[in-house]
Amino acid sequence: MNKVVANADAAIHDIPDSATIMLGGFGLCGIPENCIAALVRKGIKDLTCISNNAGVDDFGLGLLLKTRQIRKMMSSYVGENAEFERQLLSGELEVDLIPQGTLATRIQMAGMGIPAFFTPAGYGTEIANGKEVREFNGKMYLMEQALPADFAIVKAWKGDHSGNLVFRKTTRNFSTSMAKAGTITIAEVEHLVAPGELDPDHIHVAGIYVHRIFEGKEYEKRIERRTVQIS
């Protein structure tokens, strides 16, 4: 099966309006920059986006918010995006804020085929509204459902023609689970290498999970908030 496509536009060509999309990365680290730009160009709308963050005003998912292509955000951290805040407060954007560990585990469970799990996170808060609660060993837990997506889009450091992926450092936090939780998984990589070049012991996501792969270009790799300490 030939999984290599020419570019981001070819990779996302069949994503329709109203699709549910997972986008990997942690903050602005390891986000699929090329595919986000392609989604903006394609102009699809009413998207449900599952991501650790909502980008910033002029980068990452902030670009899709700016063009009003996102109908609903499911995230754990959204504090750096003024346009996100404006759309939320004006009622233009539906938002599901999810504790970060719960978000990561819901995605992981979807990739493992486990429909639900119990967690203490959120018990006694608004997050618990409408959810099943059970007691285990004297402690209360919420039932959370697995979180799959129509498409999962991730960015890796290296990948081969079979779709095997290698990530670097923090970029693994959500992307490795998301790659297994999408019905269709798209990977953009900094370096696309020939089959056999990746050490099997260093592969983080096996190619069986990846449906399309391409080598990206012109990555900015922005820092969300730079802090300088003077000693």
UniProtKB/TrEMBL annotation:
Sorted UniProt keywords: Transferase
PANTHER family: KETOACID-COENZYME A TRANSFERASE, SUCCINYL-COA:3-KETOACID-COENZYME A TRANSFERASE
Alphabetical list of InterPro entries matching this protein: 3-oxoacid_CoA-transf_A (IPR012792), CoA_trans_fam_I (IPR004165), NagB/RpiA_transferase-like (IPR037171)
Matches recorded under Pfam families: CoA_trans
GO MF assignments: succinyl-CoA:3-oxo-acid CoA-transferase activity
Source organism: Paraflavitalea soli
SUPFAM superfamilies tied to this protein: NagB/RpiA/CoA transferase-like
Family matches, as NCBIfam families: pcaI_scoA_fam
Superkingdom of the source species: Bacteria
Record protein name field: CoA transferase subunit A
